Amino acid sequence: MMSSGVILRVGFQLSGGDTQMNELIWYSWLGGVIIGTMIGANSVLEEHCKAGPRNVVITGSTRGLGKALAREFLLSGDRVVIASRSPESVLQTIKELEENIQEGLSVAKKKERKTLSHAKVVGIACDVCKPEDVKKLVNFATDELGSVDIWINNAGTNKGFRPLVTFSDDDITQIVSTNLVGSLLCTREAMNVMQYQEKGGHIFNMDGAGSGGSSTPLTAVYGSTKCGLKQFQSSLLKESRRSKVGVHTASPGMVLTDLLLSGSSLRNKQMFNLICELPETVARTLVPRMRVVKGSGKAINYLTPPRILLALVTAWVRRGRWFDDEFMQLRLIESATGLKVEHASLSPMPWRCTRKTHGFLYSRSPWSVRS
After folding, report:
1. Could you give phi then psi for residue 357, rounded to 5 degrees?
2. Most exposed residue of 160, 190, 205, 245, measured as fewest CB within 10 angstroms of its CB?
């Protein structure tokens, strides 16, 4: 992106200050970025559609982004193991995802039905902070699926937005144990399995605020764990240089969840309308790339520079997506029955989320609106 900025600056200088020429250079560059991104996305999607079923393990997958990732893998015909600390949440999520598969099968065409017929979802309760639980998860996955192609360390927590001095000992221990220690334990156990598989496998750790070393006021503990994961990734890349196991990062960007909105300010909300997305939207971008990843050390990001640029250029269209002009808030709330939307106004907004997947229409459970 920096080199693109240099090219633009040189172009403006060569134009000699001609306003029309500057506009032509700007729009030509913008068009090239968008077209190039679209071509790259299409090539990934083509490869994704041709790829066979994958065996996938996702921690922290009974809500939010984790559940959206699981659903997207299943709709691609993959076999998925979900995991969460709560046995009840695991059972409820399995039931919901199985219903999604059946809904898809009922409307799919012959070719898509064949793809979906491979989909399978199973799950187990697992606290990633506990080594014995992680070992049970690995054994469960290999018993159910035979092998593990993709492992995603999605489990994480931040315990809200507030100054460090207000965090209890238990809060700090839980954040560090889940985000950092949990990822270390899961990565170790996944590598122990994948290194003996004929085709190896791929492990993804989730990036987050602070992973680049920047400050994260009010989420200092969370930010420090993500920065630690970045160092862990760098070290692991060198350790596993000759391994059949690929280690990668996935960055979902800003995902619109109740956790994100709980500590948001008025200024944050203005930006949320531009670059925040629903978990399902992010999953639809990440999963195809995760399924066809090769090698090691890849960074699969949702919020790419072209996507940020496009969001800024189309900012006027995005006004009021998640907040109205008075910044009244749409809040996503996870429940056992799926996503619910709560709006601060009293006007009913009966929405339904309908999407096209693999050639057929697939609808999630209706979002109920509470005033």
Report:
1. -130, 125
2. 160
| 0.85 exceeded by pTM | no
Q: What is the largest CA-CA distance in the chain?
A: 68
Active site residue 196: no
Rounded distance between C-alpha atoms, residue 57 and residue 79, angstroms:
9
Q: Which of 299, 302, 297 lies closest to 276, judged by CA?
A: 302
Q: Is 352 left (phi over 0), alpha (psi -120 to 50) or beta?
A: beta
State pLDDT tens for residues 161-179.
Answer: 889 999 999 999 999 999 9
Q: What is the pLDDT of residues 351-365, one digit of tens each?
A: 233 344 433 333 333
Strands (E), 126-241: 150-153, 201-206
Catalytic residue among 196, 222, 302, 362: 222
Write down how long the chain is.
371
Please write the tens of the pLDDT for every residue from 34-67: 555 555 545 445 555 556 799 999 999 999 899 9
Give the DSSP H or E segment for 348.
none
DSSP character string of 162-192 = --GGG--HHHHHHHHIIIIIHHHHHHHHHHH
Name the token pair of 182. Answer: 């949990």
Q: Kindly report the backbone phi and psi dihedral angles of residue 204, in degrees, each rounded to the nearest multiple of 5, phi listed first.
A: -120, 130
Question: How do residues 90-109 score in pLDDT, each as one tens digit?
Answer: 999 999 999 999 998 888 88
Sheet holding 201-206: strands in order across?
A: 120-125, 79-84, 55-59, 150-153, 201-206, 245-251, 299-301
